[in-house]
Specification:
Organism: Kistimonas scapharcae
Number of strands: 14
Catalytic activity: lipid IVA (E. coli) + CMP-3-deoxy-beta-D-manno-octulosonate = alpha-Kdo-(2->6)-lipid IVA (E. coli) + CMP + H(+)
Pfam families: Glycos_transf_1 (PF00534), Glycos_transf_N (PF04413)
Strand order of the largest sheet: 3-2-1-4-5-6-7
Radius of gyration: 22 Å
Strand content: 15-25%
CATH superfamily of the largest domain: Glycogen Phosphorylase B
Number of helices: 18
EC number: 2.4.99.12
Number of domains: 2
Largest sheet: 7 strands, parallel
CATH topology of the largest domain: Rossmann fold
CATH architecture of the largest domain: 3-Layer(aba) Sandwich
Pathway: Bacterial outer membrane biogenesis; LPS core biosynthesis
């Protein structure tokens, strides 16, 4: 009964969902395309192939899932790997990372007809859902068809758990239909269990984010890029990267940068907004503050007078981190919950974050315990921490190396999750 009510409400809200899609398309035109896929209409192979379905909602989850998807492609060469996302930016990441080696469509809306059309077309032997992307009708349809479902790299903040708890029987019924949950941390696992998932079908495997792949050629590429940027500047110039920033953060970062430059005049800021639709707005913000900006997407020259490089490209984050000296991770000075702290740590950068870290609480705790993460509360503290790191080369290097050790010591979630996937398929 709870799921029936949920479905009726979903149908009633569908016009508003479509209006929201149109609104998003106004800001990001890619949302206006491929609507048929969102209702389960697309061409698939005929006759149907054996498939493993991996769902990663957007960019962050898609990147986190990359080691898992690559391993599945290697271990199950006779299976088609289907990767779904919900956002155009996530879709772009799938295509950039995997190309034609996977079958990619948008995940359907959680309506019975759309979900059934989708499952009829991809016929998965296993459904792997990344992190916390749970939809009652989708889980129920898989359960009815005896398709095992693995919620992997699973995380659930206290705030999200409170939201799911309000749905009571709907949440409990959905979680009981999941075959297994591979949680990132003990706290995540306990929250899922408290909401109704069986303890015997829950395991703490750690996060795939520690298993991120750093290309062997990345360092060399970064050195070339850095030399290009600094060709007209002092070789001692330091680059501060502020990555995955959100609205309300860029103003604070630019103010902090102004204070930093009071003591370190030749410092460069590399500013990378989280969402592509905001690139032009952030560019306008930078120029409104009488700062000289070079757009990475246009390969605009970085001269002696350039203040800010705008990282307005996709798929280059690890390269940009590797070309930098100190990192700040956005979504944390505003209450978004933070973004991936491990990418800069993996290449040996000191990591700074704001106080809003509920999406990465366990990772943040681990990095702080290793003295690899500095948490600041406002733009003044951000500026002060950057100045401290710029003043002290030994501290900068030791902090960066501490983060790199944390990443190397915590690898291993991938193998555990692959073992679970294999057990569910047999």
């Amino acid at each position: 009964m709870p799921r029936l009510i949920y479905t009726l409400v979903y149908y009633l809200l569908l016009p508003l969902i479509i209006l929201r899609l149109l609104y998003r398309a106004w800001k990001a035109p890619a949302y206006a395309r491929r609507w048929n896929e969102r209702f389960g209409f697309f061409k698939a192979s005929n006759p149907p192939m054996k498939s493993i379905w991996v769902h990663s909602v957007s960019v962050g989850e898609t990147i986190a899932a990359t080691p898992l998807v690559n391993a599945l492609k290697t271990r199950y060469p006779d299976h088609r790997i289907v990767v779904t996302t919900m956002t155009p930016t996530g879709s772009d990441r799938v295509r950039a990372i995997h190309g034609d080696s996977v079958f990619h469509v948008y995940v359907p809306y959680d309506l019975p007809g759309a979900v059934n059309r989708f499952l009829d077309r991809i016929t998965p032997e296993l459904a792997i859902i990344m992190e916390t992307e749970l939809w009652p009708n989708t889980i129920a349809a898989c359960h009815k068809r005896h398709i095992p479902t693995l919620l992997t790299n699973a995380r659930l903040s206290e705030r999200s758990a409170r939201g799911y708890a309000k749905l009571g029987p709907l949440t409990r019924g959905m979680l009981q239909q999941l075959s297994f949950i591979a949680a990132q941390a003990k706290d995540d696992a306990e929250r899922f269990i408290q909401l109704g998932h069986p303890r015997c079908q829950t395991m703490v495997t750690g996060t795939l984010k520690y298993d991120l792949n750093v290309e062997k050629t990345l360092s060399d590429k970064a050195k070339v890029l850095r030399a290009h940027w600094l060709s007209e500047r002092l070789a001692s110039t330091k680059i501060l990267i502020a990555a995955s920033t959100h609205k309300g953060e860029e103003e604070q970062i630019l103010s902090a940068f102004e204070k930093v430059r009071g003591q370190h005049k030749d410092t460069l800021l590399l500013l990378v907004p989280r969402h592509p639709e905001r690139f032009n707005d952030v560019h306008a913000l930078i120029t409104s503050q009488n700062l000289s900006v070079a757009r990475r997407s246009s390969n605009e020259p970085v001269t002696a007078s350039t203040d800010v490089i705008l990282g307005d490209t996709m798929g280059e984050m690890m390269l940009l981190f590797s070309a930098s000296d100190i990192s700040f991770i956005g979504g944390s000075l505003v209450p978004v919950g933070g973004h991936n702290l491990l990418e800069p740590a993996a290449v040996g950068l000191p990591v700074i974050s704001g106080p809003h870290l509920f999406n990465f609480a366990d990772v943040a705790t681990t990095l702080k315990a290793a003295n690899a993460l500095s948490v600041v509360n406002n733009q003044e503290e951000l500026a002060d921490r950057m100045i401290t790191l710029l003043d002290d080369e030994a501290l900068r290097k030791s902090t960066g190396q501490a983060g790199k050790r944390v990443v190397e010591q915590n690898r291993g979630a991938l193998e555990k999750q692959l073992t679970l996937a294999a057990s569910l398929m047999h």
